[in-house]
């Protein structure tokens, strides 16, 4: 759809379309990496913020396409394409917003438990022996 818009519209509209497509691809790749590999609070928080900002971007695109639609209607030109793009942008905004809400509600299930990450850091999870240390002066 982005390439159709680029060939028939102004540079601004084409850039909006291509930029939103690139951002959705980047969100998909980044989200896959975070959900599979990085289960710490900073990575999950960054992902949640990215999803919320993408939802807001698509809502603003919805408003932009509604404005283009009204401009086209004002000068008596066909505005069916703007209506479809506005609807798709609104759907994308609602879907990303609901995904962000679900992610926020279940983020504790995504995050690593503190004892699991501490075991991995010390090597206990791989069968390596651990050494306990007591500070001097604590022996009674």
UniProtKB/TrEMBL annotation:
Protein name: Uncharacterized protein
Transmembrane segments: 15-34, 46-68, 84-105
Organism: Phaeodactylum tricornutum (strain CCAP 1055/1)
Lineage, broadest ranks: Eukaryota, Sar, Stramenopiles, Ochrophyta, Bacillariophyta
Keyword vocabulary terms for this entry: Membrane, Transmembrane, Transmembrane helix
């Amino acid at each position: 759809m982005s390439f159709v818009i680029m060939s028939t519209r102004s540079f601004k509209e084409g850039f909006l379309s291509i930029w939103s497509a690139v951002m959705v691809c980047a969100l998909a790749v980044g989200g896959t990496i975070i959900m599979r590999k990085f289960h710490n609070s900073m990575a999950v928080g960054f992902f949640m913020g990215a999803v919320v900002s993408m939802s807001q971007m698509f809502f603003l695109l919805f408003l932009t396409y509604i404005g283009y639609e009204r401009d086209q209607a004002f000068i008596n030109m066909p505005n069916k394409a703007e209506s479809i793009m506005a609807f798709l942008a609104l759907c994308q905004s609602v879907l990303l917003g609901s995904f962000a809400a679900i992610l926020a509600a279940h983020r504790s299930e995504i995050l690593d438990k503190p004892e699991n990450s501490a075991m991995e850091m010390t090597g206990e999870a791989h069968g390596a022996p651990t050494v306990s240390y007591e500070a001097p002066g604590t022996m009674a």
